[in-house]
Write a structure and sequence with these properties.
By secondary structure, the protein is α/β, with parallel strands linked by helices. The protein has a domain of 221 residues: Rossmann fold (3-Layer(aba) Sandwich). The strands form three sheets. The protein has a seven-stranded parallel sheet with strand order 3-2-1-4-5-6-10, with helices on both faces. Strand 1, helix 1 and strand 2 form a beta-alpha-beta unit. Helix 1 crosses helix 6, helix 3 packs parallel to helix 4 and helix 7 packs across helix 11. It is globular, with a radius of gyration of 20 Å.
Length: 335
């Protein structure tokens, strides 16, 4: 039985990867912090590995203890990181420096896996092809314009150029599905009869359902690919109100007021929210980086490499994915 470690296993995407790893009969290790919730990690077959990425000596001791008893991991899927921070410097500290430290610790302990899969983001590319709306592809040089995107890009550069690992990097677009909390806020707003859109210029959006993303990860393991980076979407392009319209439909078409917010107002609100969050020492969904993400008009990307090399075939177009997601929110009492 081959072993797999999923860092950030208690998170939205991580918990789904853990489930699929168990379905595929991997000896599955869920990498968690001591404070992590295990709400979606209830299967008794799950092995837990506490990982303290904030303290290198502690991390080294934890991994050494695992190696002494269990040996090294055959596969590592690294999702641990942050998407929201009070201090922007924490993006680099957590997403880049801790990723680098983790890899260097694996190498120092002779625990290099057969394959190291890193979860990056389409956000590393920044606002490319904003005028011609061409798909972002492998030939485009990333121009990240957010602290989050920069931290992911620096991690990618290290993994590709310095790590010496058999790596696979995924750059998914917006990931949604059951347990996800950001798109849930949209559904909650629509349930309250309000829908917001941003800007007046055409916005081409892409999405990927969490189960399609998980499938791509295990296709990469099955194919034993190495030294590759893949963009991931469901293969379709949507306009700005497509997601909210589907949510409205799944909720029984309640009356909804559709508001379109000019970008300059969104910027003011976002900067204000960020300032208030810093004063209260809490992270905010709206901030300067979120404004840049919402301002971006082109989220198209080319998934042909994933299709050709992995045999990736999305099973969830947006309608099917939103149907499952809203049904879960309703069943769990979120809506």
């Amino acid at each position: 039985m081959e072993s797999i470690l999923i860092t950030g296993a208690s998170g939205f995407i991580g918990s789904f990867i853990v489930e699929e790893a168990l379905n595929r009969s991997f000896q599955t290790w869920a990498g968690v912090r001591s404070s992590s919730s295990k709400k979606y990690l209830c299967n008794p077959l799950i092995h837990f590995q506490e990982l303290d990425f904030s303290h290198p000596d502690r991390l080294k001791a934890q991994l050494q203890a695992h190696k002494d008893i269990e040996g090294k991991f055959d596969y590592v899927v690294h999702l641990a990181g942050v998407t929201k921070c009070i201090d922007k410097k924490d993006f680099e500290r957590v997403n880049y420096l801790q990723t680098r430290c983790f890899i260097e610790t694996l190498k120092a302990l002779d625990m290099v896996p057969k394959q190291f899969i890193y979860m990056s983001s389409l956000s590393v590319c920044g606002p490319l092809h904003e005028s011609d709306y061409l798909p972002i592809d492998d030939n485009d040089v990333p121009q990240p314009n957010t602290a989050y995107g920069v931290s992911k890009w620096k991690s990618e550069q290290y993994i590709c150029n310095e790590s010496g690992l058999n790596y696979v990097i995924f750059r998914p677009t917006g990931v949604y599905g059951p347990r996800e909390k950001d798109y849930y806020l949209m559904a909650k707003s629509i349930r309250s009869h309000i829908d917001f859109a941003v800007g007046y210029k055409q916005q081409d959006l892409t999405f990927i359902y969490v189960k399609d993303l998980v499938n791509a990860i295990f296709l990469a393991i099955d194919k034993q690919v190495s030294g590759k980076m893949y963009f991931l979407t469901d293969g379709e392009v949507y306009q700005s109100r497509a997601f909210s319209n589907l949510i409205q439909k799944e909720l029984g078409n309640p009356f909804v007021i559709h508001l379109k917010c000019p970008l300059f107002i969104l910027k003011i609100v976002s900067l204000s929210a960020e300032f208030i969050a810093k004063c209260s020492k809490k992270s905010s969904t709206l901030n300067a980086d979120k404004y840049k993400i919402m301002k971006q008009r082109n989220w198209r990307c080319d998934i042909s490499s994933a299709k050709k090399e992995l045999g990736y075939l999305p099973k969830y177009q947006l309608g099917k994915g939103v149907h499952e997601t809203i049904a879960w929110y309703l069943k769990e009492g979120w809506l």
